[in-house]
Amino acid sequence: MRVSLFVFFVLLTTQSFAQLFFNRYDSVQVIEENGTLDFPWAGGLNHPQFSNIDFNSDGTNDLLVFDKSGDKLVCLTMNAQNQLEIAPEYREMFTNQHGTVNRSLHGWVLLRDFNADGKSDIFTYSNGGLAIYRNDGNVDTLIFTLMTSKLLSDYGSGLINIYVSPSDLPAIMDVDGDSDLDIVTFSLFGTSAEYHQNQSMELYGTPDSMVMELATPCWGNFEEDPSTIAVNLGVTCKGGNTALSNSQSAANSGIHSGFTMLGLDIEGDGDKDLVVSILSFNSMNLLVNNGDATTANIGSQDITFPANFDNTDAIDIYTFPAAFLADVNNDGQDDIIASPYQENNGHNYQSSHLYTNTSSTADFNLEFSKNNFLQDEMIELGTSAYPVFFDYDQDGLKDLLVGGRGYFVSSGVYSSQLAYYRNTGTAIEPAFTLQTRDVANISSLGLGNVAATFGDIDGDGDDDLIVGGVGGQVHYFENSAGAGNPCNFTLTTPGFQGIDVQGQYATPCLFDVDGDLLLDLVIGEKSGKLSYYHNEGTA
After folding, report:
1. What residues pair up with 399 in beta bridges, in sequence order?
2. Domains in the chain: how many in total?
């Protein structure tokens, strides 16, 4: 093909077309290395966050997964065998009936029952603060009512927004054991944790409100040190200022970077401990409360949690993990799942580390279970997915090939591949079996993204492969197999015909645009622009 024309498409029409309606069908079987996947079409997970909720009002904890990457929701219900099943109908309730709620969920989402009605309410990030949606649903549908778009607290001089940094994850928990939910978070400029005590029980005798009051600006007497995962202990508050014992530097000498907190009573002694992480570190730190529910004091820490606490594998997730509590096996005990918290800069394939709680009492006994919880039952190919149906083995059945940005390697570096799932079913009842995650060793090219299209470029009767990369160029792989034979692709022309759409994430499509029986090339890219290259050759 020779390049002859470059245009932008703007499609305007006054004609009426029949509407197309699609129904979700996720029963197509997919088989990978370890067998048939339970929910292959769930979409994968990059930066998941986990919370329990009873979707169907059967008294059993189900699971909501919020993926920070794309603000995606994955809903799963617990079946009678204590196994999780994908339940897309509940996701549709969020997106269809409650579009406003769905659009407002971003940054982080934690489900907690703030009014003790047995239904999980939504706490989520809201532009430097946090918003709350009350669960008013019933057995038939999910209904979430906005209670506040910015939770306020009495700082002593009036009501002020409880600040939550976009890089932080606050702890939402009953700190003082009075049955209402309190908040522990970092202030705008501070490096110590503010404790906002809920006054609902004190004022009304019932935990049905979120009436907050700053109880202390340095809960637990610790201070963040951005240079290490360890924290400074023995911090005291005087007049709203933080002073360090042992002549350590003042609290405002450090710069608050990013801090995640998970509140839990890990020892079962009636007070709240914290599992925390700091931006730029792979591990998590257990802060053990040696005080009580009334007066917290972090007296010790475990910077390789839970390795020393439970003699199991330490959490090790690139640059900034977070931890979440959820009962994922319906044994009545909260388990811990750790995942990368910094969007677009962390593991996106084995990024859901499950630590099962095997304790039968109020304390925790954690055992590392797997690093790909839920992901091992999905088609999980890293970040982004560009699927195309193509008969790769020439058996008359459409196979599934999927490119994308690929697997996270290190900051800004991805292993971009083209996966091949062979159709081992029939034309009416397809089933896809993974053959390779890296067709033609495409990952070795370092394209940064892979989007594939197929067509007979050289006129020899078999279909060739064109791949678009992150930089805007396309690359030609010749099929040497011959007509009717399983494909054998070899890169013959990188930077095919000098085509460069001058954008990011070139996404090519071979298609006869003008009906002259020759394949033209249409290339999309990140900004939404389409480039059309007319085929003026003979094949």
Report:
1. 390
2. 2
